[in-house]
Specification:
With 64 residues, the protein is an alpha+beta fold. It has one domain. The chain has two helices and three strands; from the N terminus they run αββαβ. A hairpin with a 5-residue loop joins strand 1 and strand 2.
Length: 64
């Protein structure tokens, strides 16, 4: 459980020059022994999902 528990899901937020954010949801890759354990248990990590892009944020002084 300790080896599988080390695998994490994270969101990476990247701001764009036009005020939007690109959000990449990623899972960390297991080390070799964790990978072998997943294989023996016949488990697979899910595919990395596609990026999400948020709407641009309006600034308080900008007209809509």
């Amino acid at each position: 459980m300790e080896k599988i528990g080390a695998i994490q899901m994270i969101d990476v937020h990247l701001p764009t020059t036009d005020g939007r954010n690109v959000i990449l949801t990623r899972s960390t890759q297991p080390k070799l022994d964790g990978d072998l354990l997943l294989e023996k248990l016949k488990l697979k990590l899910p595919e990395q999902p596609p990026p999400k892009i948020t709407a641009a944020q309006l600034r308080a002084n900008e007209p809509a």
